[in-house]
Design goal:
The longest helix is centred in the N-terminal third of the chain and has 34 residues. The radius of gyration is 26 Å and the shape is elongated. Strands 1, 2, 3, 4, 5, 6, 7, 8 and 9 form a 9-stranded antiparallel sheet that branches. A 5-stranded mixed sheet has the order 12-11-10-13-14, with helices on both faces. The protein has a 3-stranded antiparallel sheet with strand order 15-16-17. It is of the alpha+beta class and 472 residues long. α1 packs across α3 and α5 packs antiparallel against α6. It folds into 2 domains: 232 residues, no CATH class; 228 residues, Nucleotidyltransferase, domain 5, CATH 3.30.420. The chain contains 10 helices and 17 strands. Helix content is 35%, strand content 21%. The structure holds zinc ion. Zinc ion binds next to loops. The site of zinc ion has 7 residues, from loops.
């Protein structure tokens, strides 16, 4: 059996006596970060080194050798603890890498634009990620580089600028903290003159038993000091999807839609039958609440003011540059809330059905796909991706596996007879094969029903034949 684990970030609030010591420590950290960032700027070619080698390379240039050889560019601070310095170097490396990669993307984008003048990239959209509960997932070749990650290619207008502020919350490696128990932690802090071990009590939800606590990050927000601690939990029963399928267990197939039923699930039994349809609603309500918020974003923006993009179109502008930013933030939080709800319901459904595997449609994120009106234009496109991503995390934490499968013909063929289907919303409409939003379908054999359920069943059917054939 393969070992699996899930990493969840716990946030605890520290009680402190000396807020200024945290601030002193943070500002020293930022100064060291800036020093290394600027050193890196002088040698961008060094980015070809691995992070570990780059760290050593930078230390050689700035720290006195064991044999007493002075460095070329000495670090201008005395008595900085080793692991504090390393955290600052790693922060500088990560900020510089991130900036350089944005710059490279932008340059490549410029080249593409010249090649492809007429290609109008419409509203590819951007949403800020909020991975607040979940950082990463282990042992998951299946979805570590998941195709489901949220589209992260906003319309880039100008050349990306250097980070305005060289700042990052401090990662505290071993050596910077100790005696971490269920009530308190000792942190090494800079008082402005010297380093001191300071005990802090804290509050927050208890850590799970038998979990491994990883290095905390100190996050200072105004007067609040938080510790963010990645907690690594071993997940039992982490057999791979293939092993599960070989044991002919039942599984759940899911369709994600842009209609009121945000997700539709079915359970495929070991003999291939699709059973127990389950509709998870909320799409209408979400659309309504989004519409209200989008309305608010237009407040106070003159109609003839062409410098501001408003409404849906503004979703392609980076969030911090939009007028009425707080309403966009609300929309992001709202979408996130629904994505969490729906993904939790999907995982609960799978648990209730006794299934160990959840199959989701593989959602492409290429521009071509994003331009198709039925896939890319609505904000639901994003909630679908987000739901799928959350299902993967939540499933893993429950000892279930979630994976994606290509939804070949899932939405164009009848599950019962494979004939092409036509779609419609009401009895008064003429069913049409090209009506992508149509909630109901009918085929020439007279089968009819919910389009989304048909898609979920087809996804399950395709997956069943692909993996079960010759396996029994
Ligand atoms: Zn049919």
């Amino acid at each position: 059996m393969s070992a699996g684990y899930a990493i969840t970030t716990y946030k605890i609030q520290l009680n402190y006596k000396h807020l200024d010591w945290f601030k002193q420590t943070q500002s020293l950290f930022d100064e060291a970060l800036a020093f290394y960032y600027e050193l890196l700027e002088k040698q961008p070619e060094a980015l070809s080194l691995s992070n570990q080698n780059l760290l050593r390379h930078l230390e050689l240039q700035t720290i006195k050798q064991r044999d007493g050889t002075p460095p070329e560019t000495p670090l201008p601070f005395e008595k900085i603890p080793l692991y504090f310095r390393r955290a600052a170097i790693n922060a500088a490396i990560s900020m510089y890498r991130s900036y350089m990669s944005k710059l490279r993307d932008w340059q490549e984008g410029q080249e593409k634009q010249i090649e492809n003048e007429e290609l109008r990239i419409e509203n590819s959209g951007t949403e800020s990620h909020s991975d607040s509960d979940i950082n990463q997932i282990g042992n998951a070749d299946l979805f570590q580089h998941s195709p489901l990650s949220i589209l992260n290619s906003p319309l880039k207008k100008g050349r990306p600028s250097k980070p305005r502020r060289l700042h990052m919350s401090m990662l505290y490696y071993k050596g910077m903290y100790k005696d971490f128990d269920e009530k308190s932690i000792l942190l090494k802090l800079y008082t402005g003159k010297t380093w001191a071990w300071v005990k802090h009590r804290y509050t927050g939800r208890p850590f799970p038993e038998n979990a491994e606590l990883m290095s905390p990050t100190i996050v200072i927000k105004k007067k609040k000091v938080m510790l963010h601690i990645p907690v690594k939990e071993i997940v039992e029963d982490s057999r791979t999807a293939k092993e599960r399928v070989q044991q002919n267990e039942k599984f759940v197939a899911v369709a994600l839609t842009g209609s009121d039923s945000l997700a539709v699930c079915t359970t495929i039994q070991a003999d291939g039958r699709a059973t127990a349809p389950y509709f998870i609603k909320g799409g209408k309500e979400l659309a309504h609440r989004r519409k209200l918020l989008l309305g608010y974003t237009k407040r106070g923006v003159a109609e003839n003011d062409m410098t501001h993009t408003v409404g849906d179109a503004a979703l392609s502008v980076p969030q911090e540059h939009r007028p009425n930013k707080k309403y966009y933030d609300k929309i992001t939080r709202l979408t996130d809330h629904y994505a969490h709800e729906v993904s939790r319901k999907i995982v609960d459904y799978a648990l209730k059905q006794g299934a160990k595997l959840i199959v989701l449609p593989e959602l492409k994120e290429s521009f071509n796909q994003a331009k198709k009106p039925y896939l890319g234009k609505t904000p639901y496109d994003f909630i679908g991706r987000r739901i799928a991503r959350y299902v993967q995390y939540k499933a893993w934490q429950q000892g279930l596996v979630a994976m994606t499968s290509k939804p070949y013909y899932a939405s164009t063929r009848c599950y019962h007879c494979d004939a092409p289907i036509a779609k419609h919303n009401t009895e008064y409409q003429n069913p049409s094969a090209n009506f992508y939003g149509g909630k109901n379908f009918v085929c020439k054999e007279g089968h009819r029903g919910s389009t989304a359920l048909n898609s979920a069943r087809n996804l399950g059917k395709g997956f069943y034949y692909k993996f079960y054939q010759g396996v029994a």
